Amino acid sequence: MGEGEPGHRVPLGIMSAPSTTPRPPAANSVWPRLEPLLPQVTKPIQYVGGELGAVVKDWDAATVRWALMYPDAYEVGLPNQGVQILYEVLNELPDVLAERTYAVWPDLERLMREHGVPQFTVDAHRPVRDFDVFGVSFSTELGYTNLLAAIDLAGIPLLAADRTGADPVIVAGGHAAFNPEPIADFVDAAVLGDGEEAVLEITTIVREWKAEGAPGGRDELLLRLARTESVYVPRFYDVDYLPDGRIQRVVPNRPDVPFRVHKRTTMDLDAWPYPKKPLVPLAETVHERYAVEIFRGCTRGCRFCQAGMITRPVRERSITTVGQMVQQGLEFSGFHEVGLLSLSSADHSEIGDMCSGLAEQYEGTNVSLSLPSTRVDAFNIDLAQELSRNGRRTGLTFAPEGGSERIRKVINKMVSKEDLIRTVVTAYTNGWRQVKLYFMCGLPTETDDDVLEIADMAHEVIRAGRAATGSKDIRCTVSIGGFVPKPHTPFQWASMSSPEVIDNRLKLLKQAINSDRSLGRAIGFRYHDGEPSLIEGLLSRGDRRVGAVIRKVWENGGRFDGWSEHFSYQRWVEAAAEVLPTFGVDLDWYTTRQREELEVLPWDHLDSGLDKDWLWQDWQDSLSEYEQDDCRWTPCFDCGVCPSMDTEIQIGPTGRKLLPLTPVGGLKQPAAAQG
């Protein structure tokens, strides 16, 4: 649906008044109605299903049925590691089935509305509304309008308060679920933290409730979920506001739900070696590789990084398990690239042995290794040689994040310009000809000069690379993202810079990069302007009042807001201007306003394990440019996670080697290549 079509949504034939009858015992495939529409849309293959690794189970043999969604296009959603893991974990249970659904592009959405085709799964093309649980994994808040589109297309009432036993329970997860308040009106529940054990617990609760005859209806099921203290059910909490718009308190509205909801932490990653059978896409996707998560969590303490804060403590997957997963995953899928994933993969205590073992194992084959996230100070010549042993060099990305030494102290990104130059030269001299450098713009206390130092750094990278290699055939790409303050980080109190400030700094930076034409020609420049970042900031730190803005944007045609060609800043600004003043606040109140220490934040009742006083002190430390060490190798800094979550940091070295692995020549032909 285009921007100019507000109020012209054609309701689906199945969209009627909420029913109190239970959902049907069997779901019929919508494929006969969907198939004739596909020749009329772009990339129809993404809606077909049947990928290697996909699972279709007998509907009637299942007791609990999950529809899992990554709220973006197939090409982005299919490779998502979190959804693939949950899909496999659930389908391994004999009485449970899980199927996948993704956001449909506007061309198909329009046709689905015209022909009465509901939101469907790609596995068996079953209507999403017929499932027991509709699980949605958010890695970014810009997927919220796609969620509303999917709920409406499914024929599910948009507001959780209007749903009955005929509707699935909608559960949000992923990093954005650590502040689900902006979508509290639209989801029934949210899970904080790791999902592997959480989905099994939810499944058990749903199974038992159904076996008992669904006593107490939907309300009782949600109450049972809330009593776990690790599933947040917004309807059981009331929010009171102060006259100036700030939150006064968030409290349970019934005595049998907890005051605080805690995150889930899966401690033994070796017990969860997923995905074992990765999905192999039929259509082109953003990542086509076998990805294995080598550890979870990060204690580097980058103050802007929500992922590093909310996934503490560090838990390493053993080198033995990694080796087994790689062997089995490649054998099954036929992929030619192995991605060793984590927030900072080179920080694994056995990364050297891991890379050398895998490089040796697959030497002489077309299998390549990649570390999608590599810290400047953890990359060395040995690692470079192992990653390029087969002659294939995947892209290298380094993230200094801040252009100046001063701003890197503010954000606690402890890397010097000398470290960066040395690391990039190591890559160039080992055969790489292009590296990507990632920075942020709009960081707290940032000035124009801090940003302009990015140009100096990029120039020095090219000069040093040319000197070391004796060649001018080298390049670097400078990629800039806008800073967005995130919940559960020291910067959760910070103000945002306006889009005008961000865009002016980016303009000055581009001029500075190109000021030396000889060097500038070798430097690519990619950036996101300030407007999408401001809206992401509204959604990341918003409260329940922001839900009305999301709904208005969706009603006015908002879809795929993470895609620049579909994002409309004007649509968001107009919706905020229409909705927020009725609550006595505005867009700037949520974004460019700095929070005070004692302000109740919308997510304070959701426990990530981090002590709020510790976060505040780290925020003060950032303003004084004080650097905090990594607590893996130094005494505890009392962030609160380990004692409050009853967990601990888990690192090696274990002393174990990669395996003995079967020689590659003895491997079976990959399943993807079999007839």
Automatic annotation (TrEMBL):
Residues 1-26 are annotated as: Disordered. Residues 284-526 form the Radical SAM core domain. SMART domains: Elp3. Gene3D superfamilies: tm_1862 like domain (3.80.30.20). It comes from the Bacteria. One of its GO terms (molecular function) is catalytic activity. InterPro entries: CHP03960_rSAM, Elp3/MiaA/NifB-like_rSAM, Radical_SAM_N2, rSAM, rSAM_horseshoe, rSAM_sf. NCBIfam families: rSAM_fuse_unch (TIGR03960). This is Radical SAM family uncharacterized protein. It comes from Micromonospora humi.
